[in-house]
Specification:
- The chain has six helices and twelve strands.
- Strand 2 (48-57) and strand 3 form a beta hairpin.
- The longest helix has 31 residues, at 2-32.
- The protein has helices spanning 2-32, 125-132, 135-141, 164-167, 170-189, 230-236; strands at 38-45, 48-57, 60-68, 79-85, 92-96, 112-115, 118-122, 149-153, 156-162, 218-221, 227-229, 249-251.
Amino acid sequence: MEILSQLVIIVALLAAGFYWLVVTNEAFLQAICEGISGSYHRGDGIGRRMYFFRGKFAGRNLRVEYRFRPFTRNRRQDELEIQIPVIQKFWMRLVTRSIPLPAEEESFAEQEVPAGPFLAHSNQPQAAREFLETPEILEQLAKLGPVTRLEIYRGTLKALYQKASDQLYRATFQEALEAIVRMIDAYERQLSFKLNAVPATESCPYCRGRLNPQTETIVECTQCITRVHKACLNENRHCTTWGCGSSTAQPC
């Protein structure tokens, strides 16, 4: 009985320690999101815990996902991702210059666009360059803080911060949120009304998946003839081409 009692105490101490580590990490997300209306949710991933915040910021739906490993000795092995829905006009990914291009993205290396401390990759490099080189956007990029990666993909802008708890505070986090919202506003406004037509390719400009008319319904924009999956157009509710104002399509 004595051994059993000791085991029960050890298990209880381990459970209390785990709970304390989880709560300590979760408190970081609560601190930086203070003052923003929303709710928190817990989740699990492979080898890590996840803590979510869902709410509204500047009139836009906001999701913040915080991923961390409670048992690691280095608490700074965490990451935070901001997610805000956007009407997608082209796929774009910004990464800091110090990060090598992933192997699966090497085909986009020739489409790099310099943007301050970042390199941008896009399926519409001309449109991305036009967007990123405007003074308004360059000003907002400088306010993003220690962001590792920013991507507009499948109707969502995602901004990733690694070692988040070591670099982000409430003021810097919310300044970055304000900058991201201003970038989205400008992106959806399309600062130029010049149509940057997209040549016909085998990839969907929204999801970047293969366009296969044998297995999926493919449509083309009635204004600029950009081809896209019908399901992707329905999801985005707007043509994915920069400068195109159409929301209608026809069968290819």
